[in-house]
Amino acid sequence: MSDHQRTEPSRTADERASLTGFLQYQRETLTMKCAGLTAMQLKERAVPPSGLSLLGLVRHVAEVERSWFQVVWNGEDVRAYWPGTVNGTFAEFDIDSADPDEAFKVWQAACARSCAIVETAESLDATVQWRDEVFTLRYVLTHMIEEYARHNGHADLLRERIDGATGE
Predict the structure, then answer these.
(1) Contact in structure between 82 and 95 (CB atoms under 8 Å)
(2) Taking the complete model, does pTM exceed 0.85, yes or no?
(3) Residue 3 — pLDDT band, cuts 50, 70, 90?
(4) Buried-state track 19-31, b at ≥16 Cβ within 10 A, e below 16
């Protein structure tokens, strides 16, 4: 696998720096799992019967970043990067004609926007109401770490099946 370096989260940071550090570590883990692969390999649905691919995961987490930080937390009226559904699944997983370079640029921009939004929040205890629920920034960051960690597990299996690369 690639020699892509991840930033280890601090073992002595305060809560906010710990949460944002672990989230960034998870983002960098997905980057590492995708590094060095061709467009065809990124699109490969490597664990049948699942239609999941590394490129689909990248597009999905871009949407998750957008929805939680821009829509839910910041209240922005921004449309999905890949709107709609295809055959009953979210459109971001429909990768047959997808452009990997575009997907990575969209994801990187979404992550940068998320980081900027988090930076401006006054505290982890700050809240936002979305629909009928109230969320703290702490919850959103923790949820995002969970989201990435789960999908990085999927990425481990996909990558191993594609080229045999394992581990962190």
Answers:
(1) no
(2) yes
(3) low
(4) bbbbbbbbbbbbb
Measured from the Cβ of residue 165, the count of other Cβ atoms closer than 10 Å reads 16
For the domain made up of 15-163, the CATH class stated in words is mainly alpha
pLDDT digits (tens, 9 = 90+) for 105-138: 999 999 999 999 999 999 999 999 999 999 999 9
3-state secondary structure the chain: CCCCCCCCCCCCCCHHHHHHHHHHHHHHHHHHHHCCCCHHHHHCCCCCCCCCCHHHHHHHHHHHHHHHHHHHHCCCCCCCCCCCEECCEEHHHCCCCCCHHHHHHHHHHHHHHHHHHHHHCCCCCCEEEECCEEEEHHHHHHHHHHHHHHHHHHHHHHHHHHHCCCCC
Contact 105, 111 (CB under 8 A): no
Of the candidates 130, 114, 99, which has an alpha carbon nearest to the alpha carbon of residue 62? Answer: 114
Q: Band of the pLDDT at 1, cuts 50, 70, 90?
A: very low
Give the residue-averaged pLDDT of 86-93. 87
